[in-house]
Write a structure and sequence with these properties.
The chain is mainly β and 231 residues long. It is built from two helices and 27 strands.
Length: 231
């Protein structure tokens, strides 16, 4: 679940955001502040300021009826398609696609991420080339409004310096956390990633899945939540 195990930091303009952190969810409270700092350093011949704390690459494609609230950075060659709603604290990576009726809030999308159809992505980090199928969403607040924990399953005790209790739960200290998707993760259509979902690199999730907790890299989440390793 460490940053270095899940995410290629050479594939995001937000590399410095992760400096000094070991686990990806630790950066969620700092995204907005980082964007403002980053935006003011972006070259003016490559990025144009399009509103308060909103920077959009000249090469990006942004539809006329898109709603963007800052802080936000839309990187080179990104596509923001009709009806997208970017609510602030959002970094959209190079060549990323944010599609029809997709809503983003407090997120980092690495380069080449695709959230192209009716997705909600909140308080989340999506690694390089991660893809969320049509209608798949992150759920970022628990129904009882308590702080989000990550269910690490069998990984109890010390996990790289982070303590999991006897039930394998890791406290995040966050009221809002959606999901962390490692590089190359594929999420099937109409799936729900419950609060505190951490999906390892190159994992595939079947359509109509309800995912919770930690899923190791190179896995397949099948119907009914059965997890198998890729052969």
């Amino acid at each position: 679940m460490k940053i270095k195990e899940m995410l290629d930091l050479e594939k995001t303009i937000a590399k410095e955001l992760f400096a000094g952190h070991e686990y990806p969810w630790e950066v969620l409270p700092f995204i907005g502040e980082f964007i403002v700092k980053l935006g003011n350093t972006l070259p003016e011949d490559e990025y144009k300021k399009a509103g308060e704390n909103i920077w959009i690459a000249v090469s990006a494609s942004v539809a006329e009826n898109v709603s963007i609230t800052g802080p936000a950075v839309i990187c080179k060659n990104a596509q923001i398609r009709p009806g997208a709603f970017i609510r602030g604290n959002a970094i959209v990576g190079e060549n990323a696609v944010v599609g029809n009726s997709t809503e983003l809030k407090n997120v980092v999308l690495f380069d080449n991420v695709q959230v192209p159809h009716y997705n909600y992505v909140g308080d989340s980090i999506l690694g390089y080339k991660a893809h969320m199928g049509a209608g798949s969403i992150t759920s970022n607040v628990k129904s009882d409004k308590t702080l989000v924990t990550i269910n690490a399953g069998l990984y109890t005790g010390e996990i790289g310096g982070v303590s999991a209790d006897a039930s394998g739960r890791i406290e995040t200290g966050l009221k809002k956390m959606g999901a962390v998707l490692g590089d190359y993760v594929e999420v099937g259509c109409n799936s729900v990633l419950n609060p505190g979902s951490v999906i390892g690199r190159s994992t595939n999730i079947y359509p109509l899945s309800s995912v919770r907790g930690y899923v190791p890299e190179n896995s397949i989440v099948k119907t009914g939540g059965v997890i198998v390793r890729k052969v």
